[in-house]
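Per reviewer request, we include the raw input and output of the structure prediction for the construct analysed in the revised manuscript.
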Amino acid sequence: MGSAGELRVGRDYTPHFWNQTVYDPFGTNGVGANVAHTGGSGLSTNLTGVRASNSIGYFTPTVSGFKGQLMTYMGETLSSAAKAGSGSAARLTYDAGPLSLGAAYGRTTTAANTDWRATNFGASFDLGVAKLMGVSSLDKQTGATN
């Protein structure tokens, strides 16, 4: 980590997960947490709803309120045909004063010729006495299971 950004390797949170937790008043935990009701709950088709294994991730430095995150991951599967758990993701955020915006996309191979795509957008605005926040997500399974 330094002035050029931050590099992370190993098992880490995915870019498409961050909006699910940052723009949720319950965060990552609790019965009301958004991630408990989405693909982040551990559905078999979603191997990277929260974390990705064998990943290489890069966080850009913040420039005029903008920050980016890129990640590629290789999963935990030995089979070279399926490559389940492998994929890539990206996230862009903007933070200025009370306003925060985020957009993310991730694509993960779940089986041979099948993948899971996550797209989400989040926003929050801090009013001082309360914070307005929300997230919109679209998860889609494509390929052999359709």
